[in-house]
Every structure is written in structure tokens, then in C-alpha cells.
Design brief:
The complex is a heterodimer of chains A (about 240) and B (about 325). With about 240 residues, chain A is an alpha/beta fold. Chain A is about 35% helix and about 25% strand. In chain A, strands 6-7-8-3-9-10 form a 6-stranded mixed β-sheet, with helices on both faces. A 4-stranded antiparallel β-sheet of chain A has the order 2-1-4-5, covered by helices on one side. Chain B is mainly α and about 325 residues long. Chain B is globular, with a radius of gyration of 20 Å. The two termini of chain B are about 30 Å apart. Classes of the chains: A alpha/beta (about 240), B mainly alpha (about 325). Chains A and B meet through helix 2 of A and helix 8 and helix 9 of B.
Chain lengths: ~240, ~325
């Protein structure tokens, strides 16, 4: 789905290189690297907020840099590590915002939009959050809503920037289980950056490790991995 | 739209008609609808009552509605744009920008600036210039409060310049400007209303394309952009429309404080939504109601003493602002 060829990621200065990489549907990738190694910049490049320095990123057969912001919103969704909530914004209205790449210039939602969002609410079993004020929710509840919003975007790829950074253990497991079932059922591609190696080993299909010595991004299948190896590569 | 929102909007609309009726009715003789409509559509300049309606009462009522609605909408746009519940055209120094440009145009006595168009033009230009200045500063300050302090400094700075201008100007021009500075709904005449209404409607038309961007901006610029919004072009439009309302009203009514800051907050408390379609209509209605109410107070106590409009809006607005600070900061 996403393929990379000699892509250099960085902002002004090069942070790391991706010699060649092919990301597939139906998988969770965990992006591992030291602080400042370029995980966020990598996401920014995929989202088109910061241009990558050189090389190619392709989505299926399209050059990613030629896709405009609106079309990209239909392909890639981004979940930040934290959503602080907005007063008087209900859970359902928040998820509905995921439909905005599809609405007209007035932002009017169609019957189809409402049905889709209600279906997502049902699937994720978050009916109790639909009418709740996002400001009054816990971080865990908001994180699940953010994922629901990404699903409402009907995208192919979801990027999550340290989704469990602000969550307690139970909520971390909940979010990762949810991501796992989404990936399987909807055949999507999920890339999450994380520092939580144990949980990643348990829940992700593959690791994308930013090698701290050579500054190269390498893909490692989960099956053959041990935590020590990951620590060694990414953090010396 | 949720059902309770519809009911509240309907109630506010009815209340607006009621207060507007009280407002236009106030005076030495009551409101006769026949005389009233004649004065607007079929004016006979020999009828004293028609003259009073046409030149004094109707413009004052309409200006209360337009000014209240416009300032509130301007405040709402700024609050969403800067993600700051205490933003407003006066706190951010935008009306100060208008004041400065109007002061320069009135007090320096250029011929062009003595026309309606000249004063409006300079007020709009001042509002837009100072909005851009605030936008520029917003890139450098991290906290919401810092931006407000910068807005207030802009206000102090401009009032210092205005005072210097006043020292060097003619007494006639000084009188015109001082009266303007008190804030008043009584300075417009019937013929000016067409132009004001026209500019106001242009602002309203632009608002329709801003509903979607404003709804997304609630999540912050980055999220809005990732949901496919072309943020850089809408930024300028939002700033321009909010300056248009603030500048237009400042040109004809003087700097009116607190309305633009307080009303959007009342509106959000009342409707409990972030849907800007409802918030825009709600703020416009509440703003119009509040300014009609303030002006009614002025009318009713006029026999005892004469209070400037800004005095009343501050008396009502300042406690509301304290309430917002206690709740949110």
C-alpha cells in the first residue's frame, strides 16, 4: 500500500533514510526510535505537513506528494497522542468531524454520514460517550473517540503518535486491542509510534526501527524479535 | 439542528422583536405602525412624527441591532480562531486600530476623510491592519493570555497617539472625535443606513462559507488541516470578515467594548454546542438583544442622567468577563 524508495526524512537536516520499505494492509506497525530520532517528522511527512527531503513515497501507484490535502484526508488519518477535549463538543459531534473531507462547502452532513458514524459508535461500543461532553471525558475515552473519528474518515491508513503515552495500563490494552480488531476487520494499515516495547511486542505485526547508529529505518518481523534486540538497535 | 436549539432561537427572535418594539416606541409619542412605515417607505417631510421616526428613532434601533449582532459575530470568530474565550475585537486591540485610523482621519482634517465613506474606509482599514498585527504576534506567543496582554498594549499605545493628535487638533474636530469615542447609537442618519446594511449583508454572506472551517478550527489548526481544510486562505477570510464587522460598527458607533467578548460566551453556555451555524445566529441575536437592552436603560434614565453607551456595556460586560475567567482560567 505504502512504498518507500530512498526516502530521506527530516526537517531542514536529514534525520534518517528509508532505503526500501513496503507497508501492507491488515497490519499494525510499531515505529520505534529514540526521542528526537524523527518519528513525528516521519508522520508529518506522510501527512504532507513537512515535505520529505528526497526520494519517493508511493501510495499504491500514486506519488504521495502529488495528492492534495483534501484527497489525502480521505487516505490517511492522524490520531494525536492527546486530545484535550472541547467544551460543549459531544463525542458524536467529534466523530462526525471525521466526515468533513466528504461534506460540501457548508459542512452539511448527509443521512449517510450520520448512519456511518452511528455504526462506528455501535461497533466500538461507545454509545455512552455519544452525547457526553468531550471536555468531561477521561484521556482513555477521548483516545478511543479519536480513533473513531479516524475511522469516520474512511481512510486506508491510520497514523497514531504515541497513542498510549497518556493512558493507564488498562486503557493502553483497550486501545491496542481495538486497533488490532480494526486492522483485521477493515483491512487497514496502522502505524503507531511508541515507547512501550512490551505491549508492542504483544500487539503489533511488525516493527519499524530507526537504527540509532546508521540512521536507517528497518523493518523487523515481530515473530523473531526479542526486546533486547530492539533496545540495542534503537537506543544502543 | 437539535430541537432545543431551535426553540431557544425562536424565543430569542421573539424577544428581539419585543425589545425592538420597546426601543422604537420610546419617546414623547408612542409607535404608530402606519406612521412608522410611511416614514420609511413613503416619507413626507412635513410630518414631524415621520421625521422623528425616520431620522432619529428607526436608525437608533436598527443600529443597536446591527452593532450588537456584528460585534458579537466578530468576537465569536476571534474566539474560535485564537482558541481563546477572552478574545474580542476590543481586547485584542482591533477596535483601537479603527479608533486610531478614524482619529487620524478626523483630526488631521483631510477632505476625503470627512465623508462617510472616508471614515468607514479608515475604520475598516484600521481594524484589518491591527487584526493582521495580532495574527502576526500570535505566531510568537504560546499562551492565550499573552496575546490578550499584547492586544491591551496595542490599545494603550494607540490611545497615547490619539491623545497626542487631540492636543494638536482644532476644537471642532476634537468635539466630533470625543463624541464618537463615547460610543453611541445616535450618530447615524437614515441615508447612511443603506450603506451600513449593505456592508453588513456582505459580511453575512461571507459567514456562510466560514461555518465549516470554524467548526473544524475548534480542534486546532493542525487537525483542521488534516481533515482537508485549506487553512491559510480561510485564515485571511476569517480575519477579514471579523475586521469588517468590527470596523464597520466602530466607524458609525464609536468603540463599543465588552459586547464582542461577552456575548459569544453567553451564547455557548446557552446552546451548549460547537456548531458555528447555531453559534453565529445565536450570538447575533443575543448581541442585538443585549445592545437594545443597554440602550433602553440609557433611554429610561436619560431624564435623570446621561450615561454613555460604553459605561453601560462595561457595567454589564465586566462582571461577565470575571465570571469567564473564574470558570476557565
Amino acid at each position: 500500500m505504502l512504498s518507500f524508495k530512498d526516502t530521506e526524512i527530516g526537517f531542514k537536516e536529514k534525520l534518517f533514510t528509508i532505503p526500501t520499505l513496503e507497508l501492507e494492509n491488515g497490519k499494525i506497525y510499531s515505529l520505534i526510535g529514540k526521542n528526537g530520532s524523527g518519528k513525528s517528522t516521519f508522520f508529518q511527512s506522510l501527512l504532507g505537513l513537512t515535505p520529505f527531503l528526497s526520494g519517493k513515497i508511493r501510495f499504491d501507484n500514486l506519488d504521495l506528494s502529488t495528492i492534495n490535502q483534501l484527497e489525502k484526508a480521505k487516505l490517511i488519518a492522524f490520531v494525536a497522542s492527546k486530545f484535550d477535549g472541547v467544551q460543549h463538543l459531544s463525542g458524536r459531534d467529534y466523530i462526525l468531524m471525521g466526515r468533513s473531507p466528504y461534506t460540501n462547502f457548508l459542512g452539511k452532513h448527509t443521512e449517510n454520514d450520520f448512519q456511518l458514524v452511528d455504526l462506528i459508535i455501535q461497533e466500538l461500543k461507545i454509545e455512552h460517550l455519544a452525547q457526553k461532553d468531550t471536555l468531561k471525558m477521561s484521556d482513555g475515552e477521548r483516545q478511543i473517540l479519536s480513533i473513531a473519528k479516524a475511522l469516520a474518515q474512511e481512510c486506508k491508513i491510520i497514523l497514531l503518535d504515541e497513542p498510549s503515552a497518556f493512558l493507564d495500563y488498562a486503557n493502553r490494552i483497550k486501545v491496542l486491542t481495538l486497533l488490532n480488531s480494526i486492522v483485521k476487520e477493515k483491512n487497514m494499515c496502522v502505524i503507531q509510534s511508541s515507547h512501550d516495547l512490551e505491549l508492542c511486542l504483544e500487539y503489533s505485526s511488525s516493527f519499524l526501527v530507526i537504527d540509532n547508529k546508521s540512521k536507517v529505518l528497518i523493518e523487523l518481523e515481530n515473530k523473531l524479535l526479542r526486546k533486547e534486540k530492539l533496545i540495542d538497535l534503537a537506543f544502543d | 439542528m437539535k430541537n432545543p436549539s431551535k426553540k431557544i432561537l425562536l424565543f430569542l427572535t421573539l424577544l428581539l422583536f419585543f425589545l425592538a418594539y420597546l426601543h422604537v416606541n420610546n419617546g414623547s409619542f408612542g409607535l404608530d405602525f402606519d406612521v412608522f412605515f410611511k416614514s420609511i417607505f413613503n416619507f413626507d417631510e412635513n410630518q414631524q412624527q415621520e421625521i422623528i421616526f425616520r431620522e432619529i428613532r428607526f436608525p437608533r434601533t436598527l443600529m443597536a441591532i446591527i452593532a450588537g449582532a456584528g460585534l458579537s459575530i466578530s468576537g465569536l470568530l476571534l474566539q474560535t480562531f485564537f482558541k481563546n474565550p477572552l478574545a474580542g475585537p476590543s481586547v485584542l486591540g482591533i477596535t483601537s486600530g479603527s479608533s486610531l485610523f478614524v482619529a487620524i482621519s478626523i483630526l488631521t482634517g483631510f477632505e476625503f476623510f470627512n465623508t462617510d465613506f472616508g471614515v468607514t474606509f479608515s475604520a475598516l482599514l484600521g481594524a484589518f491592519a491591527f487584526s493582521l498585527l495580532i495574527l502576526f504576534f500570535s505566531y510568537f506567543v504560546k499562551s492565550a493570555v499573552s496575546l490578550l496582554l499584547i492586544g491591551m498594549m496595542l490599545g494603550s499605545f494607540t490611545s497615547a497617539i490619539i491623545q497626542i493628535l487631540q492636543l494638536t487638533s482644532h476644537s471642532n474636530q476634537l468635539k466630533v472625535f470625543t463624541l464618537w469615542g463615547f460610543g453611541s447609537l445616535q450618530q447615524t442618519n437614515f441615508n447612511q443606513l443603506f450603506f451600513i446594511f449593505f456592508v453588513f449583508i456582505i459580511g453575512l454572506i461571507f459567514l456562510t462559507i466560514l461555518i465549516k472551517p470554524l467548526n473544524l478550527l475548534v480542534l486546532g489548526e493542525k487537525q483542521a488541516q488534516l481533515l482537508g481544510l485549506n487553512i491559510s486562505s480561510f485564515k485571511i477570510i476569517i480575519i477579514a470578515v471579523s475586521s469588517l464587522f468590527a470596523g464597520l460598527i466602530t466607524a458609525y458607533c464609536g468603540p463599543i467594548s465588552f459586547i464582542g467578548l461577552a456575548v459569544p460566551n453567553i451564547c455557548k453556555q446557552l446552546f451548549k454546542t460547537q456548531n458555528h451555524f447555531i453559534l453565529i445566529i445565536g450570538s447575533a441575536l443575543i448581541g442585538a438583544l443585549l445592545l437594545l437592552f443597554c440602550d433602553l436603560i440609557i433611554m429610561y434614565i436619560e431624564p435623570i442622567m446621561l450615561i454613555p453607551l460604553n459605561g453601560i456595556t462595561a457595567l454589564i460586560g465586566a462582571p461577565i468577563v470575571v465570571w469567564i475567567i473564574l470558570k476557565k482560567f
